[in-house]
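Section 5.1 Outputs to date
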Amino acid sequence: MSTSEAVSPYIAARHEWDERYGSLITQAGNWRRAFLISAAIALVAVAGAIWLSVHSRTRVFVVALDQLGRSVAAGYADQTSVASDDRVRRSSILNWVESLRTVTSDTVAQTKAIRAVYAQIAQGSGAMNAINDFYRGDPPQARGKTETVSVEVNTVLPTSDRSYEVDWTETTRDLQGVVTATARWKGSFMIAVDPPTDEAAARVNPLGIYVTNASWSRVL
């Protein structure tokens, strides 16, 4: 009798069972290893996301624009500030002078300009008294019924870290657009910087630049 013939049916069945069970054990082991590898990858990904959120490399780039949409200052947010960037302060003074001296027949636009002027005046300052007297003595709404005045700022020169000398040209036209007069003006303005701490202040004066003293006269 050969060896294969001597193997009992019981032993043969046992071998077959061992082979099947061993295959299941191997498959289960492979699945466990695959799960552990996937879990390790997910853990590393989560840890990386947390680290990136804590150590963010995002940098905000800020561009300051004047009323005509021209760029007057630009830089990363941690480098650009009202206190350190003179270009931003000069742009603010430029816009303020344009709003102060512009006369338009559009009553809505004129009212908006006047509000912009007062939004940038320090309360109780000499500038407040000067502007009140100016609007009472020469109200732009009344002038706008017969003429308009456009303003072109020529230079804004700092005379100290908080004072500026501004030179501008005013062109007066009648309501048909015909030029009736051209004059140069020069003014001295002092400012204070007080960044807004609430939403209401940020809406009307987001830079927190306020005029504290203002005087101007026509250049003869």
